[in-house]
Amino acid sequence: xxxxxxxxxxxxxxxxxxxxxxxxxxxxxxxxxxxxxxxxxxxxxxxxxxxxxxxxxxxxxxxxxxxxxxxxxxxxxxxxxxxxxxxxxxxxxxxxxxxxxxxxxxxxxxxxxxxxxxxxxxxxxxxxxxxxxxxxxxxxxxxxxxxxxxxxxxxxxxxxxxxxxxxxxxxxxxxxxxxxxxxxxxxxxxxxxxxxxxxxxxxxxxxxxxxxxxxxxxxxxxxxxxxxxxxxxxxxxxxxxxxxxxxxxxxxxxx
Length: 255
Description:
By secondary structure, the protein is of the alpha+beta class. About 40% of the residues lie in helices and about 15% in strands. It has 2 domains: about 5-55; about 65-255, no CATH class. It has helices at about 5-15, 25-30, 35-40, 65-75, 80-90, 115-120, 155-165, 170-180, 185-195, 200-210, 250-255, and strands spanning about 20-25, 45-50, 55, 80, 100-105, 125-130, 140-145, 150, 230-235, 240, 245-250. α5 packs antiparallel against α7 (about 155-165) and α7 (about 155-165) crosses α10 (about 200-210). The longest helix has 14 residues, at about 200-210. It is elongated and about 70 Å long.
């Protein structure tokens, strides 16, 4: 191998964190052509995990390393959200039994790369494309051992949980999470709720906020939230809450 190619290999190994994915787009960007990449694979420096995606030979990659590649190499607006983000923020007691579910949110036209969908991560991928909240409002940085990811803030994540309820996340579970969110930032909540286009989410949030009676609730201007018209039923044979025109599980009312 020439000194020039050795220098490129050294640059690659320095820039690619342990546990991270290298996409073919990024490899080209740092000067590694397809021919040179094949040479690195043959020499035992890189190995393919799927079409257009690679890792250091023998490296153990994580879904975090995959998301890092999606965010920083492919520049796609895909981020850990909802229950995943809440857990990443340190609320580990909400981890469910069994295989982890990885909740990812993205803008409506954003496709999850095929290599990420087909790789056997240690998590079930739950991918949602939606515009019920503004794309970049309420995202925060989360530092792991080897990288920094963009994830939903707690304020945004709880709204995403309510968006998925009751089909993917139980409403009682949502409220149990809600009870622990004593330090939410009212200014960010105000912005998110004012721009939220899901009437269901706004009504459920206001009901749970009133029920939990957190201190930050008094700093919200509820007159600026769109709660829509008509009734919303979350479950069959539930309890009707007239103040928010929603029908919710009796178990939630009784908490």
